[in-house]
């Protein structure tokens, strides 16, 4: 959490956005308020239609809010989008900024010129971002021939080209496999640790983000449902995932809701923390236990519970 005397990188004050659909108005954002300081990382969470993409578009100066205001380094991103263009990088999942007829390298050179980078600076940055994102062998390939995952990495390369102080990332993992996600998250962690890059990331692929982002903003129907530490968000669920490995396939009936695998050698269940001792006593009645592990709920499980409530 930033202190009052430190100028925030990102600030939203009572943001409200309304869209008209058919004959009715839909409130996409209502009263959204938060601040994010230099080098902080925010996970933007919520279900489909919660307002995550809308919020990122407002912060990027692509959408003018009907109510409230957004500020990047104290400036209105709608009014000063050109002035701020080199200071933040943007990825909009599902919307490409790549020209399909140009190669990846040609696209990056074009955007380097738009950012106002010198040719030498652009060449150096192309080499750096291509190496960091595994795009070196794809620089000569036309954007139209890229796979979904390759295109998303190229979009991230565009965002990183001007060495931005802030990254606004909407679904940056689309089309990436587990290894690709891990690589991108590692890169974001490096940028955050070494350059103090501020991160706002909205994604349905939540695995691994806790190692990069420390704060969370949960949107529900356009309103802030939670704002705070990711760790606090996880602790809000009153269960732990208990996994028991038996010496031999257990005998008897498993507890309701438990998952049994490995031919009866493994049993997993969601158990309230205060009920874990009695649960383990039940397990002893089923057989000799070889190993027991107790884990906090994953971020995916946290969001599943939020979406159910």
TrEMBL record:
Highest taxon, organism lineage: Bacteria
Keyword flag Transport: yes
ABC transporter domain mapped to chain residues: 12-246
Keywords: ATP-binding, Nucleotide-binding, Transport
Keyword ATP-binding appears in the UniProt entry: yes
Cited SUPFAM superfamilies: P-loop containing nucleoside triphosphate hydrolases
A matching Pfam family: ABC_tran
GO MF, one example: ATP hydrolysis activity
PANTHER family in UniProt: ABC TRANSPORTER ATP-BINDING PROTEIN (PTHR42711), ABC TRANSPORTER ATP-BINDING PROTEIN NATA (PTHR42711:SF5)
Recorded family membership: Belongs to the ABC transporter superfamily.
Name assigned to this protein: ABC transporter ATP-binding protein
Organism (species): Thermus scotoductus
């Amino acid at each position: 959490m930033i202190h009052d005397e430190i100028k925030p990188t990102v600030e939203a004050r009572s943001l409200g956005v309304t869209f008209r659909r058919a004959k009715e108005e839909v409130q996409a954002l209502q009263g959204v308020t938060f601040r994010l300081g230099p080098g902080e990382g925010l996970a933007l969470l919520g279900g489909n239609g919660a307002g995550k993409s809308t919020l990122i578009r407002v912060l990027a100066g692509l959408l003018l809010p009907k109510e409230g205001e957004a500020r990047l380094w104290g400036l209105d991103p709608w009014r000063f989008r050109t002035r701020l263009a080199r200071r933040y990088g943007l990825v909009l999942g599902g919307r490409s900024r790549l020209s399909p007829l140009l190669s990846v390298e040609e696209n990056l050179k074009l955007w380097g010129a738009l950012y106002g980078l010198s040719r030498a600076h652009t060449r150096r940055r192309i080499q750096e971002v291509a190496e960091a994102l595994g795009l070196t062998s794809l620089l000569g390939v036309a954007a139209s021939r890229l796979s979904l995952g390759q295109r998303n990495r190229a979009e991230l390369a565009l965002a990183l080209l001007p060495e931005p102080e802030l990254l606004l990332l909407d679904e940056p993992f689309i089309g990436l496999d587990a290894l690709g996600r891990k690589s991108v998250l590692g890169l974001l962690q490096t940028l955050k640790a070494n350059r103090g890059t501020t991160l706002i990331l909205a994604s349905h692929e939540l695995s691994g983000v806790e190692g990069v982002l420390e704060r969370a903003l949960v949107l529900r129907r356009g309103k802030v449902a939670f704002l705070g530490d990711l760790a606090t968000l996880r602790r809000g669920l009153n269960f732990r995932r208990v996994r028991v490995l038996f010496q031999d396939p257990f005998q008897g009936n498993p507890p309701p809701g438990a998952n049994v695998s490995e031919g009866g050698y493994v049993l997993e269940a969601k158990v309230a923390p205060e009920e874990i001792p009695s649960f383990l006593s039940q397990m002893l009645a089923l057989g000799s236990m070889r190993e027991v592990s107790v884990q906090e709920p994953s971020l995916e499980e946290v969001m599943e519970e939020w979406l159910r409530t």
